[in-house]
UniProtKB/TrEMBL annotation:
GO terms for biological process: very long-chain fatty acid biosynthetic process. Keywords: Lipid biosynthesis, Lipid metabolism, Oxidoreductase. It comes from Cryomyces minteri. GO terms for molecular function: oxidoreductase activity. This is Steroid 5-alpha reductase C-terminal domain-containing protein.
Length: 184
């Protein structure tokens, strides 16, 4: 009974998705990851761009090998809605870009001190040099943790959010902090 084949009716939510099939045939023992893979392959989208929800109550279907179609409550001729989330970017890339801002801005403002401040002495103070070293080490440590330590629960986020996410680090921890630290 549990391996019974089912046909799910597939409908787009939001803007149309090119080549999205009108139905998907699976078994009740198939995982929701199988459904994501099948719809992604047929529509030509990445699985990370798709969000699938049940038509009955609008709840989301996880992209998981551990959750079966049967466990979600879907049955033969159930409707699922598929939304294209748009271009995605990996979380690891997001963090690398965020932390890169202060790593570039602090040395740049440190070196450009004589040109940015009218009455800047020729050489920076010991505290300014120490601040540059410690801030740079801090963000290098964060970059290395991002590349070699962190595990991300989600694979991607919408690409359009990278500017908003990076603004905090680039503006506040980068430009604003550096401007005041390296001032005479």
């Amino acid at each position: 009974m549990a391996s019974k084949p089912v046909t799910l009716l597939v409908r787009p939510r939001g803007k149309p998705i090119r080549n999205l099939p009108e139905a998907a045939s699976l078994t009740l023992l198939s995982s929701t990851a199988d459904l994501y893979q099948r719809l992604a392959a047929q529509s030509g989208c990445s699985v990370h761009r798709l969000r699938i929800t049940k038509g009955s109550d609008g709840s989301g279907l996880p992209n998981s090998k551990d959750v079966t179609i049967d466990r979600t409550g879907l049955r033969d001729q159930s409707t699922v809605y598929v939304k294209d989330l748009g271009p995605q970017i990996a979380w690891r890339t997001v963090f690398v870009v965020e932390y890169l801002g202060p790593l570039l801005i602090h040395p740049l403002l440190y070196l450009l001190r004589p040109y940015l401040y009218n009455n800047a002495p020729a050489s920076p103070s010991y505290l300014q040099t120490l601040s540059l070293i410690l801030i740079s080490l801090h963000f290098v440590k964060r970059e290395l943790e991002t590349l070699f330590v962190h595990r991300f629960s989600l694979a991607t986020m919408p690409a359009r959010n990278i500017v908003k996410n990076s603004a905090h680090y680039w503006i506040f921890a980068g430009a604003n902090l550096a401007y005041w630290i390296y001032a005479p």
